[in-house]
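hi! just following up on the protien thing from before. the input was this:
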Amino acid sequence: MKNAVYVTDSHIEKHGSGGGVVSYHEYEALKKVCTVRNVYQYIGKLLVEEVYPRNPFMHDYYIASIVDNPDEIELAQFYGAGWTLTMRRLSKAKIIVTVAAHNLQISLEEWSNFQFIEPPPPHLTNPDLFALLCKGLTEEADIIVCPSTSSAKFLVDKLHVKEPVIIPHGTD
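and the predicted 3d structure came back as:
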């Protein structure tokens, strides 16, 4: 069995909807085929969250700084966006990333449909930050998993991803 880590920008939740449930199923599947050494997840009470709210870049910086024994990890699975530094820290591992959002326009539409009180995070409204996330994703990931054919089309057309894997949300 390979040594693995799981990194998510959601709280792992067995019930409900959204990224937490996707993270739950990914983590459970990973445990069946690997020895999961650590789970690194979004932690809302961190100083980085209080100073830089909902900023994936700061969470990436924090998680990258606390990864234990990166050279011993053979597989790293990521859910969500903004993990470029952490992926680079785990450079000896095979990197699998599940892209939570389809593309910038669809992400903003989804955010509006949820009717959150808070405005969307800056990486969803700023094309330059979104491009930075995408650049890190395409440069560091070995396998990119996306939730739909529209996601796959976006990844192929805009980011030149060769063969994204489609696993629809809700698949356990």
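The CA atoms of residues 60 and 83 lie 5 Å apart.
The chain has a mean pLDDT of 82.
cheers
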